[in-house]
Design a protein that fits this description.
The protein is α+β, with helices and mostly antiparallel strands. It contains one helix and five strands.
Length: about 80
């Protein structure tokens, strides 16, 4: 519902899934925002980490692997 107006925007894809996650991930190329879910805290008040890919792999690549696994099984949101 909150992202519906992005449908049809060039370069934007939306998908839904039923996976239980403990973070919300927002990725664009080699950067990612990770909104950590904290018990009793609304998402807007929880920590957000800004990750950037570097040549050493690490945390960014771990989150990309998690993101891709969920993304691959998620259902594309259709306009309408």
């Amino acid at each position: 519902m909150h992202y519906r107006r992005l449908l049809g925007v060039s370069g934007v894809e939306l998908r839904t899934h039923g996976t239980t996650l403990y973070n919300s991930l927002y990725r664009s190329d080699d950067q990612m925002l990770v909104n950590a879910h904290v018990w009793g805290v609304n998402a807007y008040g929880a920590p957000v980490w800004h990750l950037r890919r570097d040549s050493g792999g690490g945390m960014f690549d771990s989150y990309v692997e998690s993101f891709n696994a969920v993304w691959d099984q998620a259902t594309p949101v259709q306009e309408g």
